[in-house]
Amino acid sequence: MSASTPEEARARITALREQIDEHNHRYYVLDEPILADGEYDALLHELQALEAAHPELVTPGSPTQRVGAAPAEGFGKVVHGQPMLSLENAFDDGELREFDRRVRERLGAASVTYIGEPKLDGLSLSIRYEHRLLVQAGTRGDGRVGEDITNNVRTVRSVPLRLRGESVPEHLEVRGEVVIRRRDFEALNTARLERGERPFANPRNAAAGSVRQLDPKVAAQRPLTLFAFGVGECSISLGETHWQVLEQLGAWGFLVNREVRRLDGVEACLNYYRELRERRDSLDYEIDGVVFKVDDLRLREVLGYTARSPRWAIASKLPAREATTRVRRILPSVGRTGTITPVAELEPVEVGGVRVGRATLHNLDEVRRKDVREGDTVMVRRAGDVIPEIVSVIPEARPQRAEPWEMPGHCPACGAEVIRPDGEVDYRCIGSLQCPAQLSESIRHFASRRALDIEGLGDKVAEQLVDTGLVRELADVFTLDKEQLLGLEGFAEVAATNLLKAIEARRRVPLHRLLYAIGIPGVGADTARLLAAQLGDLDFIRRAHPVLFALVPGIGRTMGEEIRAFFADARNVGGLDRLLEFIEIEGEEGVAPEYAAGVAAAAIIRELGLPKVGPKRAAELAAKIQRLDELPELPVQRLPVAGTEGERLCDALRQHKADLRAMDELLLAKNLHWTSDRSRARIRGAEQATTPLAGKTFVLTGSLERLTRDEAKTRIEALGGKVTGSVSSKTDYVVAGAAAGSKRDRAEQLGVTILDESAFHELLGEE
Ligand code: IVH
Prior knowledge:
By secondary structure, the protein is α+β, with helices and mostly antiparallel strands. It is 38% helix and 18% strand. It is built from 28 helices and 24 strands. The strands form six sheets. Strands 12, 13, 14, 15, 16, 17 and 18 form a seven-stranded antiparallel β-sheet that branches. The protein starts with 5 loop residues before the first helix and ends with a helix.
């Protein structure tokens, strides 16, 4: 719409500002956008153009005024209308109870209602509004005087430039914490790395650095979010409770944390604390504690203040998850499949309540990217249950002669060559089971709980068995005798007898345990169960073409390729055959899978990835044949597509001729009947598959690296779970990949468990 007269321009400008403010609020505060980015941009451009044509109509509250201020030389001062206090800390349950006792005693009350809020780990701000408009924003500083960061705060989209709604006071100071959400932080750091800039150590540093930028245009590029948690000076009374104050802040257009909870009594506070501690990793922002505030504002006045902090609030601290320490050495550690992982040996330090002496550096690229060197002082982080990792190096503390770390050319355990296979990030030792490190890791895995579950055969014993040469391959575990065991460190009569008994008991094992135990790359315990339950026998699995695996719900062609590659290696086959001299597979013949081959054929055809062949065409193709190996011979006229496309399809089919013939042989060998009866389309035996996810509901959001959405869905369903499109309180898990959006937030609000990709794979039983 174009506005020609000044009146029309004025009216249009007002309308545009209202619309833009509304969409901003929906997007950044409510997280319920209803407008596409492009449409929003169009509105903003129109407003910018109109304001450029009518500069006299530009106001400081206009959404065009978020960016634009010139870089400053330094920051001015802001005197807070009311001082910005800090909070007293409680480090354990006892200290929180003690706080509650003091509060009750002073008030003479039997029980007190508190408001619990996540203690955000960011930077606290005070923002002053006069007659609805944002006029000034300051950092906390010494509590009384802070730095003037108005122009930077104006760029923060969750901060209203103009207050919305009713009963707006003439003067108002809003208090809140500015943070960078985790997902925004990741994107920010990725972009910095791409530009060759140093990544930020954590979201807090990034937020603090951004707020204190001298150039507001730089600050505007940083994805800052403000959560409002209170009010300083205010020209009107804001109700009777803190809860009402928060509601009022929401109505004026601020983002108020959705986790805020009203809690009756200290026990409810303790429960809330525990709940947030559990959910800490699934929140989209970092928290370092939980704040409890007396809800009733009159009672707050009765309680008053000490010199530093209010007597009506306390912060229950969560264990710090970061600490600094020194890297003593960086050691290459050889895993079960030969992958060499650089591991930093640290001066022990306590992080998140646990003593940490080592941290993985994942791979050489990571060592380079973070530029970690022996002797460096580093920031170590432990989030949830994950392995501690080095976040960043403190460059100022680097010793003079620290050299960049190099990957050794030969395996530290066996001396074999170390290679980096094409296209992979990991280096690996080519020693295979001749390498003592790979062998002892393989034995440990072989004996682990979900594999053969041999009690008494852990890392230490596995290492000794390898070092003494008693075990040179997995099968040797079954040749051990008591005398040999008694020769090992820590083995007396009882331990030796027990271990031998445990080994003896595993001479008969279910197929799935064996499949997992032999350590096929990518095959976790649950995948092994699926393979066993649905494909039935080891011989079949050993010979199966990768395409066949695609028929098994939850497996797929890629894993099929891995399985095939494993069985194509003579060393693996030899090792397995030797094992089978000692092990009998339990109940194998009972499974006898049966395919409705017509449907199997359709699935196989789909999996071949022929050009333009989706499920429908695959089914049409399958319907035209009796046996798979007939497919490539099919005349063009009988194909479900005509002309050149049909010819192309014919060519593609011919390319897969060998595959299809092999598949057909396998299906026939398994006595799989040809039928087009869809009701029997399922692979029999699926009933016997484990369903560890039975009754669980999943929502997928964002993109996963290792799986497509469809694959993820198939796997969940194969394990008995269900995938739905939207998050509700009934959802059990939200799997959030990269760039996950509002579904993730919704899950967070509802307290639904959020799994990142690796947690998801873990749940699926993969490593
Ligand atoms: S209330 C007088 N609520 O913690 C009470 N503070 O040590 C003032 N913080 O400087 C603070 N989340 O930066 C409050 N929900 C929350 C908070 C919070 C984080 C920070 C704030 C303050 C520090 C107090």
